[in-house]
Amino acid sequence: MRAGRTGEILARLEAAGFAVTGLKMERLDRARAADFYSIHRGKEFFDGLVEFIVSGPLVAVRLEAPDARARVRAFVGATDPARADEDTIRRDFGTSVRQNAVHASNPDEDVERELEFFFPGTTP
């Protein structure tokens, strides 16, 4: 949000065939941020994740598409923008590992929990 690229990122997701089925802007407090990133509690980067996500408002997006879980991760790119493939969201808009423009749920871990976190009652 800070960089003013939200619309551009959403437009790229839609152009790639993702349907936006949920959208909300929110500002998390520390407790809620720590809950969101609870899967990373105890890891060296946990405090940095919490610090960044509480530093300003965020836009949560619920996307749908065939094979969306795997496709969205590939579309946004590697966590480190310097290592992300060309034409990915993180390569084009990220500035560092921590400030990589977007968060994308790990398709093998907690997609449902993260969707329920921001869009209660909408997960299948």
Distance between the termini: 29 Å
Beta strand %: 5-15%
Helicity range: 25-40%
- How many E-type strands? 2
Summarize model confidence as the mean pLDDT.
Answer: 92
What is the molecular shape? globular
Corresponding CATH architecture: 2-Layer Sandwich
Within CATH, the superfamily carries the name Nucleoside diphosphate kinase-like domain
Query: What do we call the CATH topology?
Result: Alpha-Beta Plaits
User: If helices are DSSP runs of H or I spanning 4 or more residues, what is the number of helices?
Assistant: 6
Order of helix and strand elements from N to C terminus? HEHHEHHH
What's the level 1 CATH class? Alpha Beta
Task: Return residue spans where pLDDT drops below 50 for at least 5 consecutive residues.
Answer: none
Integer-rounded radius of gyration: 14 Å
What does this protein look like?
The chain is an alpha+beta fold and 124 residues long. The chain has a single domain, classed as Alpha-Beta Plaits. The protein contains six helices and two strands. It has helices spanning 6-15, 30-36, 46-53, 68-76, 89-93, 111-118, and strands at 19-26, 58-64. The protein has a two-stranded antiparallel sheet. The chain is globular and about 35 Å long. The mean pLDDT is 92.
